[in-house]
């Protein structure tokens, strides 16, 4: 990980194949500033395809996951935009957040979101881009954009993919707040935990499961899953057969099959 980007708004560490990425603006409840967005994109891009990273854990410092966009900095950026074309400047900044969510979703490794406290707006976008999401029951979720006269522009497609159009409409058009139990019920998160100890135990369990999976196979599976969206089923299945054939002939498949026959763990899990 010598090429890991230098960061000032994040805490990062790599141990036992797990890259931990912690949003580190606790005084702002880890609201997304332009610098934090740039740094997150850089970190996720830097580990793409790196076999030594088997999983990425995304969480927030100070008891909150992410309060969404930093409204104060967003307003300052809008005020500083060129008078001739402020709309273009605002759109460009907004689109940069979309690039972040795409980078998280496109990670070749499984991304596990560990959620405490406040999760608003763009924070929910990060949850939707994760592969696995664990939360505390008393976490507080919401999509408050319309209450501010704004729209959840960049996160809308990801929210719809995650929880479906019916729930997305309800939450976006009311700005309703909800807790971790409701988040799990609607499929935004996968497991709700009673306290921090249970949350950490759930994370350890998920990471143990991920370590039993071949990194290359996980990466190919993620690509295939997202390739299914909005495409003809026959074409997807044709492509899937080719991906399966490539995987079957890989070193991972040979090792995984041999480990099964020899009743041992494969090399990547030992």
Q: What is the average of the pLDDT values?
A: 91
Number of strands: 9
Gross geometry: globular
Number of domains: 2
What low-confidence regions span 5 or more consecutive residues with pLDDT below 50? none
In the CATH scheme, the class of the largest domain would be: Alpha Beta
Overall structural class, as computed from helix and strand content, comes to: alpha/beta
SS field, number of helical segments? 11
Widest sheet, order of strands: 1-2-3-4-6-9
Radius of gyration over C-alpha positions, nearest whole angstrom: 20 Å
Shape-level CATH architecture of the largest domain: Alpha-Beta Complex
Describe the structure.
It is built from eleven helices and nine strands. With 270 residues, the chain is an alpha/beta fold. The chain folds into two domains: 10-211, 2-enoyl-CoA Hydratase, Chain A, domain 1 (Alpha-Beta Complex), CATH 3.90.226.10; 215-269, Lyase 2-enoyl-coa Hydratase, Chain  A, domain 2 (Orthogonal Bundle). The strands form two sheets. The chain has a six-stranded mixed β-sheet, with helices on both faces. It has a three-stranded mixed β-sheet with strand order 5-7-8. Strand 2, helix 1 (34-46) and strand 3 (55-60) form a beta-alpha-beta unit. Helix 4 packs across helix 5 (156-163) and helix 5 packs across helix 6. The protein is globular. It starts with 9 loop residues before the first strand and ends in a 9-residue tail after the last helix. The relative contact order is 0.10. The model has no long low-confidence stretch (mean pLDDT 91).
């Amino acid at each position: 990980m010598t090429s890991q980007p230098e960061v000032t708004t994040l805490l990062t560490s790599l141990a036992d194949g797990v890259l931990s990425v912690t949003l580190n603006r606790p005084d702002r409840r880890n609201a997304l500033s332009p610098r934090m967005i740039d740094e997150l994109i850089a970190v996720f891009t830097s580990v793409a395809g790196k076999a030594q990273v088997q999983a990425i854990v995304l969480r927030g410092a100070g008891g909150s996951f992410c309060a969404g966009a930093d409204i104060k900095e967003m307003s300052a950026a809008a005020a500083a935009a060129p008078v001739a074309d402020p709309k273009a400047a605002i759109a460009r900044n907004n689109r940069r957040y979309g690039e972040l969510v795409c980078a998280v979703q496109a990670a070749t490794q499984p991304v596990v979101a560990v959620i405490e406290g406040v999760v608003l707006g763009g924070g929910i976008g990060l949850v939707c881009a994760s592969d696995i999401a664990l939360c505390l029951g008393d976490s507080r979720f919401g999509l408050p954009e319309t209450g501010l006269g704004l729209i959840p522009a960049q996160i809308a497609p990801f929210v719809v993919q995650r929880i479906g159009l019916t729930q997305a409409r309800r939450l976006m058009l009311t700005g309703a707040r909800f807790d971790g139990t409701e988040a799990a019920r609607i499929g935004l998160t996968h497991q709700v935990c009673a306290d921090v100890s249970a949350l950490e135990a759930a994370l350890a369990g998920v990471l143990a499961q991920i370590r039993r999976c071949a990194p290359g196979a996980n990466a190919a599976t993620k690509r295939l899953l997202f390739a299914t969206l909005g495409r003809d089923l026959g074409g997807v299945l044709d492509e899937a057969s080719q991906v399966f054939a490539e995987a079957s002939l890989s070193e991972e498949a040979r090792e995984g099959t041999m480990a099964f026959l020899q009743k041992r763990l494969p090399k990547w899990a030992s």
